[in-house]
Design a protein that fits this description.
The protein has 5 helices and 4 strands. It is an alpha+beta fold.
Length: about 140
């Protein structure tokens, strides 16, 4: 059974934590890369949960514009980005499942698919338009 419509997560609400996750994945962060390498589902969820628990992450409410958002905080020095990135991935998975965390079809780099149709196949460096010059010629 195929699904005709894909639920599009509220990416604006998931940032800045999701942006941190994308940056860490692009940099090859071993912790978050380990989550992606454990896909599908249960093994990846276990690794993601272990990152959050191992860093002592705890949820807190933070004021954000006209409302509130849930953020993960830790008292461990140097773990802020890892906690934010793991939290961003966890929220993305909670909204749309694991299908939005992918590996590039060219280089296997992990990335988050923000497209409405969940159809992206390449990392930022290998997207078809990434090599185009301003003249539109390769």
């Amino acid at each position: 059974m195929t699904r005709k419509h894909v639920i599009v997560p509220p990416f604006r609400d998931l940032d800045p934590a999701l942006e941190v996750a994308e940056r860490l994945l692009a940099q090859g962060n071993p912790w978050l890369a380990g989550v992606v390498s454990a896909l599908p589902d249960e093994r990846a969820a276990d690794r993601l949960n272990r990152i959050l628990a191992g860093t002592g992450a705890a949820p807190r409410l933070a004021e954000a514009g006209n409302g509130w958002r849930l953020v993960q905080v830790t008292s461990w020095p140097g773990c802020g980005d890892l906690v934010a990135g793991a939290s961003g991935l966890a929220e993305l998975v909670a909204f749309g499942g694991w299908r939005r965390i992918k590996r590039c079809a060219v280089c296997a780099e992990a990335f988050c698919d923000r497209t409405a149709g969940c159809s992206r196949r390449w990392c930022a460096g290998h997207r078809p338009h990434a090599g185009f010059r301003s003249t539109g010629v390769h």
